[in-house]
Amino acid sequence: MQAALQSWSPPIALTLSVVAAALVYALGWYRLRTVSVQVISAWRAFSFLLGLFFIWIALGSPLSLFDEELLTVHMIQHLLLMTIAPPLILLGAPLMPLLHGLPPPFVKAIVGPLFRWPPVQKIGTLVSHPAVCWLAAAAALIGWHIPSAFTLALQSETWHVVEHSSFVVGGFLFWWPVIQPWPSSSTTPRWFILLYLFLATLPCDILSGFLVFSDRIAYPIYLSAPRPFAISVLADQECAAALMWSCITILYLIPAAILTHQLLTVRRSPDEATVAVAPEFAPPQNAASQER
C-alpha cells in the first residue's frame, strides 16, 4: 500500500480537464452574477464544483490505485461516477454558466449553430426521454457487472476508460429527467418520476442482493490480486454489494421524498385562502348577492 501511494501521481489530462471546466463555469457564473444575483445562486455553483471534484476523486486520486485490488473501492468509484457526481453537476444548472464562460465568438460561431441544428435537437429530445435515460443507466449498471465484462475492464486500460465513461454518461442521462436543468422541459407528469426512481432501484437490488447473499466469488480476478487490507475476497464482495445497496436506496429516496412533498403541498390562490380563513370578510360578488 505504501509503495502504491508513493508511485501515485495525479493524471495530468483529467486534472487539467476538471480545472478547465471549473474555471469556465466560475467565469460564466461571475458574469451572470454581475447582471443579477438571482440567476444562478451560490449553492448551485458549489454543487457543480463539488460534482467535478468527486469525478476527480473517483478517477484521479489515490483511490483509483486500489480499484483493481478491492471490489469495494471499485464500487465506490461507480457510485461517485454514476450516482453522486452527475446530480450535483446538473443541480449547478451547468449550461448557462458554461456558455457565458466560453469566449463569445466561439459560442456564436460553433456552439450556438450546433445546438440549433435540427438533427442535434432531435437527438437531444430522444436521449432525454425518461425511458431511454432509465434503460441507459440500467444497461451500464448491469452490463459492466457481468463477470466477463468486469474482468475485461480490469485487464484492459482502454476498456476501463470505456467503462468509466459509460457510468458518467449513464449517470447524467438517468438524473436528467429527475432534475430537469435549464433549458430542458418535460411533458412527463412529475408524479411519474416517483415510479421512475422506484423502478431504478430494482436492477440495483437484484445485483447487490445476488452479490451479498452469494457464497461464490463473482469476480475471480480478485483472487490473484494483492490484498492491501485484512479482508477476504468474499467479505470484500459482500461489503461492496452492501455499500451499493444502501447508498443507492438512500440517494434515490432523497429526491423521491422532496418530490412527494412538492406534490402533496396544496397551493391555493389568495382569494381561496381569504375565504377559507375568514369567510365573513370575503367581499360580495354583486349587489344581488348582497341583497340575498
Question: Any chance you could write out the topology, listing elements then pairs?
Answer:
Blueprint: H1 2-7, H2 12-35, H3 42-60, H4 71-91, H5 95-101, H6 104-116, H7 118-127, H8 130-143, H9 147-155, H10 157-179, H11 191-213, H12 233-264, H13 270-277, H14 287-291
Helix pairs in contact: 2-3, 2-5, 3-4, 4-10, 4-12, 8-10, 8-11, 9-10, 11-12
Describe the structure concisely:
The chain has helices at residues 2-7, 12-35, 42-60, 71-91, 95-101, 104-116, 118-127, 130-143, 147-155, 157-179, 191-213, 233-264, 270-277, 287-291.
Please give the number of β-strands.
Answer: 0
Q: Give average pLDDT, whole number.
A: 83
Helix content: over 70%
Number of structural units classed as domains: 1
Structural class: mainly alpha
Backbone CA Rg: 24 Å
Biggest sheet layout: none
Strand content: under 5%
Please tell me what the overall shape is: globular
Distance between the first and last residues' Cα: 88 Å
Low-confidence stretches: 268-292
From N to C, what is the helix and strand string? HHHHHHHHHHHHHH
Number of helices: 14
